[in-house]
Amino acid sequence: MSIPVILVTGFLGAGKTTLINHLLTANGGRRLAAVVNDFGAINIDAELIAEQADGVVSLANGCICCSLQGDLLRTLSNLLRRMPPPEGIVIETSGVSDPAEIVRSLLDPVIWRDAALETVIAVADARALSDDPALLDDALCRSQLASADIVVLNKADLVGEAELAAARRAVAALKPERVIFPAAEGRIAPELAFAGGGHEPRVADPRAAARARFATPRFATTTFTAGRPFVLATFQAAIGRLAPQLVRAKGFVTFSGQPDQPMLFQLVGERATLGPAPAVARGEAVRLVLIGEMGRIAPEAMRAALAACVEG
């Protein structure tokens, strides 16, 4: 069974570690491992995360995008051999890392078979962008955003509404508005990282009222199943039309001509992938979960569009 991988990238000081700690605690009961990379001889982030994860592996004193074929891949291999293996792996890159090469490598079919890249999250600092919009002129920042499926505009509670709107417009010049989510203290809805999501635990916190103003919108979920395979070209065209309404989609699909070869389909932000399904993926020919923001998702229309993809 392929283990989902969440890759977290973003600006120095934007709140990546805070966001990861939130994912590790609001994980719907999943057993997660974390791989943390600080650009320094002492990996402070690993110590900040250590109490939350099922296991933390530190990759200190270097940029993991420069040594991907070495330490990181060996680390993933070791995590996958654990008994029991983790149910998800969260990788934090250093703020000075360009994630593009990491993403390319994690999408390699050989790696995907055992550790499938689920979501790339870029964390941007709303306060810093409000103070200096020219941050987005930096090539590294632009590459981090370009690689992302989801952009979390963190520290939204530290700016006014007008400043937040300006920061969001600045990011929207590089990414579609629908994949940009303001957040306070890295508190994003688990659905943004994990398809199907979990339920965030209720925590008594006097700062909850301030966070609520910038809470991630709630999500609507719909499902689609079919007993016969899809026609590939029709499905590709339908997903192209449906994607602007979706934050993500995931499931198992088969296609006419290859009904005995189920595929794992994922749509996250603007990235859609098809890869071999795990051996346990048996059942109906098509099983999909579609997730979008409330008010933007039209379940009946989506199911109708997908029904039209079924082989006649």
Explain the overall architecture.
The chain has 312 residues and is α/β, with parallel strands linked by helices. The protein has two domains: 3-212, P-loop containing nucleotide triphosphate hydrolases (Rossmann fold, 3-Layer(aba) Sandwich), CATH 3.40.50.300; 219-307, Hypothetical Protein Yjia, Chain: A,domain 2. The chain is 29% helix and 26% strand. The chain has eleven helices and twelve strands. The strands form two sheets. Strands 3-2-4-1-5-6-7 form a seven-stranded parallel β-sheet, with helices on both faces. A five-stranded antiparallel β-sheet has the order 8-12-9-10-11, covered by helices on one side. The longest helix has 13 residues, at 68-80. It is globular, with a radius of gyration of 19 Å. Residues 39-53, 58-69 and 196-213 have low confidence and may be disordered.
Q: What is the helical fraction, as a range of percent? A: 25-40%
The total of beta strands comes to: 12
CATH class of the largest domain: Alpha Beta
Task: Tell me which CATH architecture of the largest domain applies here.
Answer: 3-Layer(aba) Sandwich
Cα Rg: 19 Å
Structural class: alpha/beta
Mean pLDDT: 79
Q: Which word captures the global form? A: globular
- The portion of residues forming beta strands comes to 25-35%
The description of the largest β-sheet is: 7 strands, parallel
Q: Which stretches are low in confidence, meaning pLDDT under 50 for 5 or more residues running?
A: 39-53, 58-69, 196-213
Instruction: Predict the CATH topology of the largest domain.
Output: Rossmann fold
Order of helices and strands: EHEHEHEHHEHHEHEHEHEEEEH
Strand order of the biggest β-sheet: 3-2-4-1-5-6-7
Q: How many H/I helical runs?
A: 11
